[in-house]
Amino acid sequence: MRILITNDDGINAPGLEVLAEIAAEIAGPSGEVWTVAPAFEQSGVAHCISYSHPTMVARLEERRYATEGSPADCVLAAISDVMADALPDLVLSGVNRGNNAGENAMYSGTIGGAMEAALQGLPAVALSQYLGPETVGLADPFEASRRHGAAVVRQLLDHGDWNSSDDFRLFYNVNFPAKPALGVRGIRVAPQGRRKDSRFSVVPYTAPNGRRFMWAQGGSQQAPANEGSDVAMNMAGFVSVTPMRADLTCHASLERLSEALDRDGQLQEADPVR
Q1: Is the pLDDT of residue 177 over 90?
Q2: Which of 53, 92, 232, 269 is spaced 20 to 30 A from 72 at the CA atom?
Q3: Would you say 96 is a known binding-site residue?
């Protein structure tokens, strides 16, 4: 198997080393693992691409490249240039330092990389490691994902919906709980949740030269979320798996809204200009 790995924490991030181990185990001795990752940290860039300026791609060593762009840029660079002669069979993004469950998914560059792969027709999985009180004292905070990552990806390869006929191909968002490897209770498929009373915000700051800046900060990652969600499963010690796609349509509202607008929302023709 030919696997592309990327991330949003940057080419030198420890989570990318964990992902390389996972990918090597999945690819097997006759497979290939290619790395195309951001040269610098790109956390919080979501699915952004460098549309208005060029992006440099640098070869660091065999099958290892860095770009001056986002995770989505990295995927585009891989399929359009670095691996154009033989596309990857699978794209893995992560392992992110910190969870991408709940509302974090909307901001995540890790998920952005997997989403771009899916939009390009490639199977993709985003992987993230929840951090918390039980990981603080671990020599390896990625212990849970390092130990269980390959097994989770294998199960998705065996049982995931990789041949959906929908216009938007599915990809998978995986979050490992903030537990030692032996404390992980299993895998649960769960929808994306929302932490209660926990939101991103900004902290204003005045520099010595008088200029005004702001620092973005997330809310509490230990805040509870709706029952059965990815956050709730992670907090209970399970690996969460969430099928996702790049379709933001609220399908549950389409029929009702369409009927209402057809009935009451016809535009009136304007009086002709005289």
Answers
A1: yes
A2: 232
A3: yes
- Both structure tokens of 171: 């990809």
8 is in an annotated binding site: yes
Known binder of ligand: residue 108? no
**Annotation-wise, does 9 bind a ligand?**
yes
DSSP structural state of residue 135: H
pLDDT tens-digit map of 195-234: 988 888 889 999 999 999 999 888 888 888 899 999 999 9
Task: Specify the CATH number for 2-193+223-264; select among 3.80.30.20, 3.40.50.170, 3.40.50.300, 3.40.1210.10.
Answer: 3.40.1210.10
The three-state secondary structure class of 208 is: coil
* CA distances (Å), origin 262, targets 146, 252, 259: 54, 17, 5
**pLDDT exceeds 90 at position 165:** no
Buried b (16+ CB within 10 A) or exposed e, 135-149: beeeeebbbbbbbbb
- 241 phi and psi angles, rounded to 5 deg: -125, 120
Q: What is the mean pLDDT of residues 41-46?
A: 95
Largest CA distance in the chain: 80
In the chain, what are the domain boundaries?
A: 2-193+223-264
Distance between CA 218 and CA 104 in Å, rounded?
9
Nearest partner of 128 among 107, 142, 112, judged by Cα = 142
d(Cα 216, Cα 202) in Å, to the nearest integer? 4
Tokens standing for residue 110:
């890790």
